[in-house]
Amino acid sequence: MEPYETHLALAAALAVGLLVGLEREQSKAERGGNQLGGIRTYPIFALVGAVSTLLGPASMWLPLVSLLGVFALVAISYAADIKRDADHGMTTEISVVGVYLLGALAAARGVVEPVADRLLLVAALGVAITFLLSSKPWLHSVTARVTRDDFFATVKFLIVAVIVLPLLPNVDVGPLQAINPRSLGLMVVTIAGLSFLGYVAIKLFGAKRGLLVGAALGGLVSSTATTLSFAGRTKEQPALAPVAAGAIAIAWTIMLVRVGVVVALIEPSLLRTLAMPLGAMVVAALVGMLLTFRRGGETAEQPQLKNPFELGSAIKIGLVFGVVLLVTKAANVYLGAGGLYLAAAISGATDVDAVVISSAKLASGGVGEVVATTAITIAIAANTIVKTIMAWSIGRTALGKRVAVTGVLIIVAGGVALAVTALA
User: Fold this and answer.
1) What is the pLDDT of residues 136-153, one digit of tens each?
2) String of DSSP letters for 306-367
């Protein structure tokens, strides 16, 4: 037993009981004072649970008898409330049982160890219960905005993400072993998830600003997936083209900033040569966002919110990405990796992060900083070209022209800045 373990367990049980009890005490006014327990009763229930568990070695029946007593009190209170109010729920009664069990968990040795993890779990669950109890109006308002179709689509997405994806083999298969089913499935799930992220942002911030917020968050995960997601949306709703182009530019900007962060973590000295090309590309992406977002963005009709999870579209886009992987692998096998630059161009077409990490490590291992910077810049340019082609082919001309403006600005700015850096 750790020092003061019993005292800490009792203190944690008391704290959780006080927290939940305070919330229930404040909610009594909403229910006219007819409610089981409050600021004093809940801490007592938590302490009874903790003490019963501590006394378990003395009598193995005591915790069970104590729990049955709690159930009896809850049942009596619930029956009395039902007589007064036919619509009475069970939230308060369940919270009493939950607080009792959290008190028991705080003092239960050998269940979750070490004791610090156990007490942290008790505190986290107590906070979660308090949040659920106190956020009833907000949760009901969210529920009112969720349609049956949205819920059904979410369940389908969870089936794919939680059940199907883990079952996919994590091995390279197909021609040239170019396709990894797990990676491809992860791309499909990411695209569908980003669509939902944008859907939620639209409801919270409005059509135009919501798409930009969703794109910024998506850029932290995968700028390629974000591009494919917005291209698929634009294909379904052409009026989104001006806004989607700006959203894609935001995602690309976040991706460029992420490259700088990764390099700073792996090889900070590389930023001496990479800072200028990377900074120029960030500025170019922001300029592209301003140009494409404003051009027709204010007069375009407001898009209608649709189902956030279009798994059919996500699967089709995933297959397109799989074709790109196959073409990239074929180029690498039959043309050969003629140096770091060619490898960066081929690999960067689908994965910038891999090139960034490998180039940064090569820079720390003796390869010149200018060479590593050039490889990273080439990878970003190749990735930008591929994403532009994807956006044009999926989102059609209305989106493709706008995305191409941003892509050209990024590539030109990066190339000019790289030339200046190499000559310096």
Assistant:
1) 888 887 777 777 777 777
2) --S--HHHHHHHHHHHHHHHHHHHHHHHHH---SHHHHHHHHHTT-HHHHHHHHHHHHHTTS
